[in-house]
Amino acid sequence: MQYRIILPKSVQKELEKLDKKIRMRVIVTLQELSKDPFAGKKLQGEHAGQWSVRAWPYRVIYRINKGELVVLVIRIAHRQGAY
């Protein structure tokens, strides 16, 4: 089963701002997420219900909707300010 990746406009803008090399790294990470979104790290506390995966030096923060097979990307941010 392949999950559909949804990038809101704000996340698309964040992605476009990245250096080309890093942007490609994030895109590859998103492609991998479509195959196995549970490979990321489940977040806790105020970020409960969200997941994080590394695309060094960035983090992709997302939610998983198992019923609709959807991964909603919430944020793409540098690791120092991702949370």
TrEMBL record:
A family per Pfam: ParE_toxin
InterPro entries: RelE/ParE_toxin, RelE/ParE_toxin_dom_sf
UniProt KW keywords: Toxin-antitoxin system
Organism name: Candidatus Wolfebacteria bacterium RIFOXYD1_FULL_48_65
Family, similarity comment: Belongs to the RelE toxin family.
KW Cytoplasm (keyword) present: no
Alphabetical list of SUPFAM superfamilies matching this protein: RelE-like (SSF143011)
Protein name as annotated: Addiction module toxin RelE
Entries under Gene3D superfamilies matching the protein: RelE-like
The organism's taxonomic lineage, starting at the top: Bacteria, Candidatus Wolfeibacteriota
Superkingdom to which the source organism belongs: Bacteria
